[in-house]
Amino acid sequence: MHETSGLHIAFGILSADETINDVITNETESHVISNETLNVVWRIFVFGLIPLFSVFGVIGNVLSLAVLYHQRMRNPTNSCLAALALSDLSFLIQSLLFVGTNIQSIYNPVLGEERSLILYPWFGAYASLVASRISSSLILLLTVERYIAVCFPIRAKLICNTRCTIACLMSICLVTIVLFLPYAFKYDIVYIQGNATHTPMRLMPSELGKNKEFFEIYGVTLNVIYRFVPITLVLVLNMRIIIITRKTCSSRKLMGTLDAKVYSNEQTRITLMLVTVSLLFVLCTLPGAIQSVLSHYLEGYTMTGQHRYVFQCFSYIIYSLETFSSSVNFLIYMVMSKKFSKTYKEMFCCLKNQTHYRVPCNSKESIRSLPKSESKFLQSLKESQYWNWIVLDKHTSVLNMAHGNSLKSTMKLKCKSPT
Question: How much is the pLDDT for 402?
């Protein structure tokens, strides 16, 4: 149950432990998957799917960060989504780095192998793991936050506030970075003289890396904490969230107030979006967790064992699934969040001719969520004689704002009568 097994495959090298201690012979090869089939699978994933997912994901996560940073989008939940986009972006950049080293190894095998060996100790064995494990922790944090919001809506505002969210985000990042530090110092690069046909470098275990018993126990512990615990909790909590959300929606539909219906629809969309993100994470992470168990208990199912071709083939598939999971959140936000989609279109598609805002007139937060020009105008109206007319309905007013120089003259207010 090693933490770094899949990433050795990703960077196109074997671990130092395996190159030193394991001897591959033709007699021990498994014929379930041939070497030719493995090469085809390698080319499909390394030069096709993984770079495609990575490039799309890098663009999508950059756009997500820009939208989530917008003033209208700032809240504790979106802070978690922004942190998730940042960790996914880091993981995808390292995926592109791994693709680059594999491409270079085709045209210049010696230089490509050297680059892989140089990059692996810090990027393959450490940084990639840290980024992916931070993402899994953030998914769990989002699930817990949504569970509190759905099951304890009155306490949610006290528990899931901005200060608490930022403290949790910083704690997750710092703890994960520190816990995985031993993997950054597990390997040393040794230079070999008189080797003209291959790279003069070799990856060797450091003094810390030679302590196999420590890394065996430590790797299993981290695997349980950062893989199996998040997957289990995310599944259990999301099942509970779905059940309670269905009951809540049914009860709110019976309520006749407009506020109840609007609130129910908005909260339901947010919940469904976060549930989708969480379940996608489980589907894409579970195969890697299963493979880590099989490699620990199934004899020969390692990178250099009898079934190494099967192991390597599934490692490429698992790595591509994790890349896919990190790259599609932007699409989920665009499809399932009207607020996110509207903000994105305003920022990048120049759709500002007419925007409709639903504003609770007595809410300072709603006024702050408007663009500055509308916010100042609405604030000035609040201090004028017209404000009493605007707030005839103390619950909700619908403001249809036409942008441009004639904002004040073209602004239409639709308010319900107090009766």
Answer: 35
Rounded distance, CA 94 to CA 226, Å?
20
Closest CA to 366 of 352, 378, 355, 354: 378
Q: Given this model, what pLDDT does residue 175 score?
A: 95
Judged by DSSP in three states, 159 sits in helix
**Residue 172 reports pLDDT greater than 80:** yes
Q: What secondary structure letter does DSSP report for 353?
A: S
Question: Which residue, among 33, 182, 207, 173, has the nearest Cα to 122 in the 3D structure?
Answer: 182
Of 81, 44, 88, 75, give the one whose Cα is nearest residue 317. 44
H/E element, 88? helix 76-107
pTM comes to 0.74
First-residue to last-residue Cα distance in the chain = 67
Q: Which residues contact 202 (CB under 8 A, 6 or more apart)?
A: 16, 19, 117, 189, 190, 191, 192
Pairwise CA distance, residues 222 & 293, whole Å? 13
- Own/partner pairs for 210-215, CB < 8 Å, 24+ apart? 212/17, 214/182, 215/2, 215/182, 215/186
Across 169-182, b (16+ Cβ under 10 Å) vs e yields beebbeebeebbeb
* Residues 162, 269: Cα–Cα separation, whole Å: 21
415: exposed, middle or buried (Cβ count in 10 Å: 0-12, 13-18, 19+): middle
What angle, rounded to 10 degrees, do the helices at 76-107 and 128-151 form? 160
pLDDT tens for 353-397 read 444 444 444 444 444 445 555 555 555 554 544 444 344 333 333
Q: Which residues, 6 or more positions from 269, have their beta carbon under 8 angstroms from its beta carbon?
A: 336, 337, 338
One-letter amino acid at 52 equals: L
Q: Give me 134's structure tokens.
A: 């931070």
399 by Cβ neighbours in 10 Å (0-12 / 13-18 / 19+) ranks as buried
Q: How sure is the predictor about 115, in pLDDT bands with cuts at 50, 70 and 90?
A: confident
Burial 288-300, CB ≥16 within 10 A → b, else e: bbebbebbbeeee
- Which residues partner with 402 through β-bridges? 354
The tens digit of pLDDT for each residue in 47-78 reads: 888 999 999 999 999 999 999 988 888 888 88
Q: What is the dihedral angle through the alpha carbons of 200, 202, 208, 214, rounded to the nearest 10 degrees?
A: 180
What gap in Å lies between CA 366 and CA 263, rounded to an integer? 14
